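Quiz preparation item.
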């Protein structure tokens, strides 16, 4: 018992000593700063050297795809391909039986399908419904089979798992570090922010296992991976991003100055003459002095417990809509009272006077109005990315980070394309879905090469239309050396391509006449010859060449290729399998 009391007393002595040291440091810091009620000199803004897309980006952006590939580079594609193919071969046995290596065309098509899921707002929709023959989107099965999409998603990796434990000992982000560093280094090369830059945090939704998963009750998703971001306040272009991997191993000093370190890191390389807007987690007097050394100013909210603050404007009570100012030669501090017994503190190195909006009924100070105009750069990026996010359900946090990389890259590409093509932006200015149209064109451009490569694979009529849009050559007569069919009129060609009888309209959905009645499967498809209703599980798809052979008497060959149960059921009207395929009436 005596030993336990001695330990408690020792802890109390240590706590008392630590508190006394902190108070001495605060007094020492307060003694270095002299606050005054007299305004200083108003800062003069100098002209920016450049803003907007850089010359490097302007010379290489020609369309939506080229803008996206400037951010999702060939080096990143090789990182994903090498590690994904290694994981696919490993997970399918020692010889990789059952796994086909991905190439650049298939990887881009996979990324394009992810982006298209965001266009269709299908984040919570099962992949089976996207590939469904009746209710899904034709572009998905036309690009790759559902099983292949599942296989690629399962094998998706961004590092070598054999060497990961050694790297993970010193880097929590080892599973995606190589890809992240390559991507984040590209962001500042393509865009110069304007005069206003916002620094804030982004939360990537994730609820699985992750050593640095964060809980933020103020965010809509609450759980996820925290990312520090510096964005242009006007366009919300993500200029720099950094993943927060938890408490630093060096000790409490890093934790105490985390806000200062983050702002200095994400603004490294930012040209002078700009202003940084941040909230009270980051803002401090020391940060203001450090940014001024880089020719950068700061405007931000401030905690009331900062040791460098004077007592008289902070703790004195004022009437509503009143402002109290304090000045140093380089910093302006304002305490504003929005309502009785409440106040907010703001610090600025961009303002040197006590300007107040006297024409407003609330008489807000100019510093607060400036902060409100530029504080939402990162929050706006998060909102825009979430609107058309390509995120899919996953249990692996590296995959969640990869999805966020694709989302931010697609948005940054949209900003580049919009600013480099003002005439295009003006034509879409009145449309609220301008970004959706951009993402749709980008997704189709990414999947088009694989759709063309799969031109010979039998597909449903709706998938054939997707292939036609991708300039797929579906002429099979020459390859099979069949007699060419007579030349038809354009109306007849369109009618034959869609397999819809002339003058017919889309019929209401009725029960499939091949499936058992107890299943009650509704369909709008019918046999082109006998008009029997057949669902997507019961019909047989023919290419034009095989359809021509069937019409010429190749019914016996068709019967040999049919499943036994289908051969027994046959056609409801002819008591034999119908060789004409099926179509939508």
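Solution:
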């Amino acid at each position: 018992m005596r030993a336990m009391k001695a330990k408690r007393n020792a802890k109390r002595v240590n706590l008392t000593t630590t508190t006394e040291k902190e108070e001495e440091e605060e007094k020492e810091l307060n003694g270095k700063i002299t606050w005054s009620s007299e305004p200083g000199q108003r800062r003069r803004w100098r002209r920016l050297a450049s803003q907007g897309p850089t010359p490097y980006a302007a010379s290489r952006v020609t369309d939506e795809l080229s803008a996206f590939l400037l951010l999702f580079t060939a080096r990143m594609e090789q990182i994903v391909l090498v590690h994904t193919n290694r994981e696919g071969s490993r997970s399918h046995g020692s010889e990789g039986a059952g796994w086909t290596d991905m190439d650049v065309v298939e990887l881009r098509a996979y990324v394009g399908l992810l982006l298209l899921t965001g266009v269709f707002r299908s984040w919570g929709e099962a992949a089976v419904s996207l590939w469904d023959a009746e209710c899904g989107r034709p572009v998905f099965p036309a690009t790759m089979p559902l099983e292949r999409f599942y296989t690629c998603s399962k094998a998706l990796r961004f590092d070598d798992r054999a060497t990961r434990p050694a790297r993970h000992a010193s880097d929590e982000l080892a599973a995606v570090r190589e890809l992240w560093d390559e991507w984040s280094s590209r962001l500042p090369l393509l865009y110069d922010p304007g005069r206003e830059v916002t620094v804030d945090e982004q939360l990537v939704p994730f609820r699985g296992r992750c050593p640095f998963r964060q809980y933020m009750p103020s965010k809509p998703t609450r759980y996820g991976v925290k990312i520090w971001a510096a964005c242009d306040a006007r366009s919300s272009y993500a200029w720099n991003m950094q993943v927060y991997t938890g408490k630093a191993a060096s000790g409490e000093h890093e934790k105490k100055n985390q806000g200062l370190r983050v702002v200095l890191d994400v603004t490294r390389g930012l040209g002078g003459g700009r202003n940084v807007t941040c909230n009270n987690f980051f803002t401090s007097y020391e940060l203001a002095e450090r940014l001024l050394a880089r020719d950068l100013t700061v405007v931000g909210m401030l905690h009331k417990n900062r040791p460098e603050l004077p007592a008289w404007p902070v703790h004195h009570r004022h009437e509503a809509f009143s402002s109290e100012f304090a000045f140093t030669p380089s910093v302006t501090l304002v305490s504003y009272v929005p309502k009785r017994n409440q106040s907010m503190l703001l610090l600025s190195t961009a303002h040197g006077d006590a300007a107040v909006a006297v024409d407003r009924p609330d008489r807000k100070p100019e510093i607060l109005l400036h902060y409100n105009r530029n504080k939402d750069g990162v929050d706006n990026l998060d909102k825009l990315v979430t609107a058309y996010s390509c995120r899919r359900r996953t249990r692996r946090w590296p995959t969640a980070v990869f999805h966020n990389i694709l989302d931010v890259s697609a948005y940054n590409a949209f900003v580049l394309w919009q600013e480099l093509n003002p005439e295009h932006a003006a034509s879409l200015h009145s449309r609220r879905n301008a970004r959706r149209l951009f993402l749709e064109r980008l997704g189709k451009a990414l999947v088009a090469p694989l759709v063309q490569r799969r031109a010979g694979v039998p597909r449903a009529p709706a998938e054939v239309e997707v292939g036609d849009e991708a300039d797929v050559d579906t002429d099979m007569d020459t390859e099979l050396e069949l007699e060419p069919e007579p030349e038809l009129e354009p109306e007849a060609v369109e009618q034959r391509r869609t397999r819809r009888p002339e003058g017919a309209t889309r019929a209401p959905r009725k029960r499939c006449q091949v499936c058992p009645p107890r299943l009650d499967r509704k369909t709008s498809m019918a046999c082109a010859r006998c008009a029997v209703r057949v669902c997507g599980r019961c019909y047989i798809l023919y290419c034009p060449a095989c359809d021509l052979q069937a019409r010429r008497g190749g019914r016996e060959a068709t019967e040999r290729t049919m499943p036994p149960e289908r051969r027994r059921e046959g056609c409801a009207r002819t008591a034999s399998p119908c060789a004409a395929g099926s179509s939508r009436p």
